[in-house]
Specification:
globular, binds hypoxanthine, about 30% helix, about 25% strand, about 280 residues, alpha/beta
C-alpha cells in the first residue's frame, strides 16, 4: 500500500470511498457543503503531484452522494508538465489501495466533428494513445498488475451502459466516441485533426489516457466523460486557448455534474472485481 493511502485512511478514520471522480479543467464544485466529510490537500498526501496548471486545485474531497462515499480529485498531472510516471501512477494506485471500485474521469476536449458542438458531453468508448508515451514503461509493480496488461475494455462497458441509461432518464444528450490523446502542450494542427478524423476519432485532448492505462493495469474500472470546449484546429475559426477551455467547461459544469451525481445515485456495482 502506498504511503499516501495510509495517510488518507488515517485522516478519514478508515472511511473508504466507493467511487472516485477526477475533475478536469474548469470543473470545481462537486459537493454541496453539507455533504463534505473531509478535505485533504495533495500536499498532505506523500508523492501526490502538485498541479501546475490553472483550473486544477490540488485537493481531494471526501463526501456523500446518497449512501455512497465519493472521493473527488481536484487536479491531475499531464505529461506536458514533464514526464514523471510516479506523479501519474500515484493517484490512481492510491484509489485502488483505499478501496475505490470505479473511477469517473472527466476532461476537456476539442471536437473533430462540426455536429458535436462546444457544450456537448461525450462518453469515451475507446481511445487512441497518440502521445508517444505509456506510463507503465519501466519496472513493473507486480502487486498492482501484470507486466503486459489487457486493454480490450478500457472504458468499462458495464458501467458505460448504466451511464447511457441515466443520461436518457434525465433527458441529457450524450455522445459516445473515441478520444485521442496528444501530448500537448501545443494544440493540434489542422492536418493532425484531419488525420484523426480519418482514423475515426471524435475528440482530442491532453489527458485521461495515462490514468486509464494505469487503472486498467490494476483492474480498476473506468468511465470517462469529455466536456467539449471547442471545435478542434482547422474546424474552429478562432485561435485555440486554455482560457476558452476553462470558460466553456465552467458553462457545462452544472450539466455534467448532474449527470455524474444521478449516475452515482443509481449505480450498480460488479459483484466481484474484474480479473484481467
Ligand atoms: N485539443 C487538445 N486538448 C484540448 C482541446 C483541443 O482542441 N480542447 C480542450 N482540450
Amino acid at each position: 500500500m502506498l504511503k499516501s493511502s495510509k495517510v488518507f485512511l488515517k485522516k478519514t478514520k478508515n472511511i473508504k470511498p466507493d467511487v472516485a471522480v477526477i475533475l478536469g479543467s474548469g470543473l470545481t464544485n462537486f459537493f454541496e457543503k453539507k455533504n463534505i466529510i473531509k478535505l485533504i490537500s495533495y500536499r498532505e498526501l506523500p508523492n501526490f503531484p502538485e498541479p501546475t496548471v490553472k483550473g486544477h486545485l490540488g485537493k481531494v474531497v471526501l463526501g456523500k452522494i446518497k449512501s455512497h462515499n465519493i472521493l473527488c480529485l481536484h487536479g491531475r498531472s499531464h505529461i506536458y508538465e514533464g514526464i514523471n510516471t510516479n506523479s501519474l501512477k500515484t493517484p490512481i494506485r492510491f484509489l485502488k489501495d483505499i478501496g475505490c471500485k470505479l473511477i469517473i474521469i472527466t476532461n476537456a476536449a476539442g471536437s473533430i466533428h462540426k455536429s458535436i458542438k462546444p457544450g456537448s458531453i461525450m462518453s469515451i468508448k475507446d481511445h487512441i494513445n497518440w502521445s508517444g508515451f505509456n506510463p507503465l514503461i519501466g519496472p513493473n509493480e507486480d502487486d498492482y498488475g501484470p507486466r503486459f496488461s489487457d486493454m480490450s475494455d478500457p472504458y468499462d462497458k458495464f458501467y458505460r451502459k448504466q451511464l447511457k441509461k441515466i443520461a436518457k432518464k434525465i433527458n441529457q444528450k450524450i455522445y459516445e466516441g473515441t478520444y485521442c490523446m496528444f501530448s500537448g502542450p501545443s494544440f493540434e494542427t489542422p492536418a493532425e485533426i484531419k488525420a484523426m478524423r480519418t482514423l475515426g476519432v471524435s475528440a482530442v485532448g491532453m489527458s485521461t489516457v495515462p490514468e486509464v492505462i494505469i487503472a486498467n493495469h490494476c483492474s480498476l474500472p473506468v468511465v470517462a466523460l469529455s466536456v467539449i470546449t471547442n471545435q478542434a484546429a482547422g474546424i474552429s475559426k478562432n485561435k485555440l486557448s486554455h482560457k476558452e477551455t476553462l470558460e466553456q467547461a465552467a458553462l457545462v459544469e452544472k450539466k455534467i455534474l448532474k449527470l455524474i451525481k444521478n449516475f452515482i445515485k443509481e449505480l450498480i456495482f460488479y459483484d466481484t472485481t474484474r480479473n484481467n
